[in-house]
Amino acid sequence: MDIPATLRFSRDHLWVNPGADATLACGITDHAQSTLGDIVFVEPPAVGTLIQAGQSCGVVESVKAASDLHAPVSGEVVEVNQAVLTSPEMLNDSPYQAWIFRVKPTDSRQPDDLMDDEAYRNFLQD
Questions:
Q1: N or C: less crowded end of the chain, CB within 10 Å?
Q2: Banded pLDDT at 82 (limits 50, 70, 90)
Q3: Which has the closest alpha carbon to 61: 81, 91, 83, 31?
């Protein structure tokens, strides 16, 4: 299973990738997409929404199930990836390139509270 060393991971199987503009791209992990199966619909949080870490902020639906997206950090949603809304299968094809939304965190240190690749790999094995 692919787990990039450059990302941070939540217990709810979302990843974050810091951008140069102090925002975080957020998406679902390879583990999440493989568990869900063929993804057919994504409902991200709306731009301008204030999200709270650990709280539901959207939905990903597959042919097998619907799964809530739980915010990996607290902050304001500043962008939604329109390409993923149009082609949700991108989340299956390239889960670490197909981000769902970008958030400006309320505290820039929040990603430090998330798991690194090694911790996430161990989390999956427990």
A1: C
A2: very high
A3: 91
